[in-house]
TrEMBL record:
It comes from Glacieibacterium frigidum. One of its GO terms (biological process) is glycine decarboxylation via glycine cleavage system. It comes from the Bacteria. Keywords: Oxidoreductase, Pyridoxal phosphate. Coiled coil: none annotated. It catalyses: N(6)-[(R)-lipoyl]-L-lysyl-[glycine-cleavage complex H protein] + glycine + H(+) = N(6)-[(R)-S(8)-aminomethyldihydrolipoyl]-L-lysyl-[glycine-cleavage complex H protein] + CO2. This is glycine dehydrogenase (aminomethyl-transferring). Residues 179-298 form the Aminotransferase class V domain. Residues 1-20 are annotated as: Disordered. GO terms for molecular function: glycine binding; glycine dehydrogenase (decarboxylating) activity; pyridoxal phosphate binding. InterPro entries: Aminotrans_V_dom, GDC-P_C, GDC_P, PyrdxlP-dep_Trfase, PyrdxlP-dep_Trfase_major, PyrdxlP-dep_Trfase_small. GO terms for cellular component: cytosol; glycine cleavage complex. Its EC number is 1.4.4.2.
Length: 521
């Protein structure tokens, strides 16, 4: 791309001086690999390939593979430069609400890299992985203790996968008693995966409204319960960052109607060590190990979403599970091996193997290093930090449900304070990039117009939160004083504002060499 300067800021914009390279100081411009390399060269010298008889059965390639040839320095520099344009928890506070993007202690990473855990294979003989099975069983024990539930399935690979596991157990329990209920109730304040999971299991989904406090409308829920309702899927603390104070009453009403309570436990970090979900009448709940017990967020994997079950659902928990037999641990993978009445109606397998071993190691390391008092402090600090953000911004931002008392682990705002400026949540989010922050969760939950959901997490210091709060307060004042200056933000990022809708709906997935226009003579 020599000779083609890439403008990253408009003339006269906040970005200042333009550069011929497109670089901005040490933030280096980086083209695609296909633009850097050439298909007719290679970074290493290879001998000519001798003629041999093909063994591909007519599936030979008949045209060049068209991969760019680059040297080792080219490759290293390419990915290093790209990494500098990324944002992660190791760079700064990550205020995404409903995601709990917190620091991952390096001790956990060190434990997960121990050869006895990092190098094992799921098809090894059980006798050769006794330590790994003991670790899974130990983690399962602590998950049951922390939730007050008698059974746990360790194999689900993520939160939504855990939801599926819990709902399949509920369906199996209903079928076992000859009950063909077809409706699942989902409150407005639940996570968006909840209705999707219910629909995937074949249920019709009906909405339950929130009341003026941002909680489940208990009267509306009770009015809808009936013999056709299989379950209620509820998130607690909910997506508005609020605890459901009627949880016990909800459980009693649902059980009286012959249905089950599924709880989305994604926000368990707000109550861990403080509240046991089993005491609230919950029948099944998944736990996102990355959100509560600080395993990495995987970026699409590896995740882990163990599911805890009440006594009513324990017999229907999935295979496989670890069972201690004398001094050894067995991995129960077949129905025929089920000797315990607690598992004799398992709905089957969720996955090919046993779960995410690396995530189990990290989560147990986190739990044991914190202890009972430390895990309690996790919840207390998460709630303290979120309320500090709420109290520090509510005079300049519009705080949703401001009259509902303290929030839990995340603070929810709307863009109502920008009324009359022509600006909205998206403009604030883009301006945050210029300030060096990843934006908070935007436009979610849907029950709040222009929602901005901020979760500082328990691992952030007061100093880091003060920096974020100061930037947001400053942005609010500047956007109200000069709205036109923020309609095209960000100005300082490697790329300017994109058409995100078009990018999502019409993604360009294959690179094509641009055709250069030839000027007419």
């Amino acid at each position: 791309m020599m000779g083609h300067a890439r403008k990253t800021t408009p003339e006269g914009g906040q970005g200042g001086v333009q550069t011929w390279t497109g670089n901005r100081g040490l933030m280096l411009e980086e083209p695609l690999l296909f633009e850097k390399g050439a298909v007719d060269r290679c970074g290493v010298d290879l001998p000519d390939v001798p003629e041999v008889k093909s063994r591909l059965g007519g599936l030979e390639r008949h045209r060049p593979i068209d991969l760019p040839g680059l040297s080792e320095p080219d490759m290293v520099r390419h990915y290093t430069r790209l990494s500098r344009q990324n944002y992660g928890i190791d760079l700064g506070i990550f205020p995404l609400g409903s995601c709990t993007m917190k620091h991952n202690p390096r001790l956990n990473e060190k434990m997960a890299r121990l050869p006895g855990f990092a190098d094992i294979h799921p098809l090894q003989p059980v006798d050769s992985v006794q330590g790994a099975l003991e670790l899974i069983d130990t983690l399962a024990h602590w998950l049951k203790m922390l939730t007050g539930m008698p059974e746990v399935a360790m194999s689900p690979k993520a939160g939504a996968h855990g939801e599926l596991c819990g709902m399949l157990a509920i369906r199996a329990a209903l079928e076992a008693r000859g009950d063909s209920r077809k409706v699942v109730l989902v409150p407005e304040s639940a996570h968006g995966t909840n209705p999707a999971t219910a629909a995937f299991c074949g249920y019709a989904v009906e909405n339950i409204p929130a009341d003026a406090r941002g909680r489940v409308d208990l009267a509306a829920l009770k009015a809808r319960l009936g013999p056709d309702v299989a379950a209620v899927m509820i998130t607690n603390p909910n997506t508005c960052g609020l605890f459901e104070p009627d949880m016990i009453a909800i459980g009693e009403a649902v059980h009286a109607a012959g249905a089950f309570v599924y709880c989305d436990g994604a926000n368990f970090n707000a109550i861990v060590g403080r509240v046991r979900p089993g005491d609230l009448g919950i029948d099944a709940m998944h736990i996102n190990l990355h959100k509560t017990f600080s395993t990495p967020h995987g970026g699409g994997g590896p995740g882990s979403g163990p599911v805890v079950f009440s006594a009513a659902l324990a017999p229907f928990a999935p295979l496989p599970f670890v069972l201690k037999q004398g001094d050894k641990y067995a991995l129960i993978e077949e129905r025929e091996a089920l000797a315990s009445a607690d598992h004799n109606q398992s709905f089957g397998r969720m996955v090919a193997f046993h779960g995410q071993m690396g995530m189990f190691v990290r989560a147990l390391s986190y739990i044991l290093s914190h202890g009972n008092d430390g895990l309690r402090q996790v919840a207390e600090d998460a709630v303290l930090n979120a309320n500090y953000v709420l109290a520090s911004l509510k005079d300049v931002f519009t705080a949703s449900f401001a009259d509902s008392g303290p929030c839990m682990h995340e603070a929810l705002f709307s863009d109502d304070f920008l009324d009359g400026t022509g600006l909205s949540t998206i403009d604030l989010a883009k301006a945050m990039i210029d300030e060096g922050f990843h934006p908070m969760t935007m436009y979610f939950p849907l029950v709040v117009h222009g929602a901005m959901l901020v979760e500082p997490t328990e691992t952030e210091s007061k100093a880091s939160m003060d920096e974020l709060i100061g930037a947001l307060r400053s942005l609010a004042r500047r956007m109200l004083a000069d709205p036109d200056a923020y309609r095209a933000a960000p100005y300082l990022s490697p790329r300017r504002r994109l058409d995100e809708t078009a990018a999502a709906r019409k993604p360009v997935l294959t690179w094509r060499e641009p055709v250069l226009a030839v000027a007419a003579e």
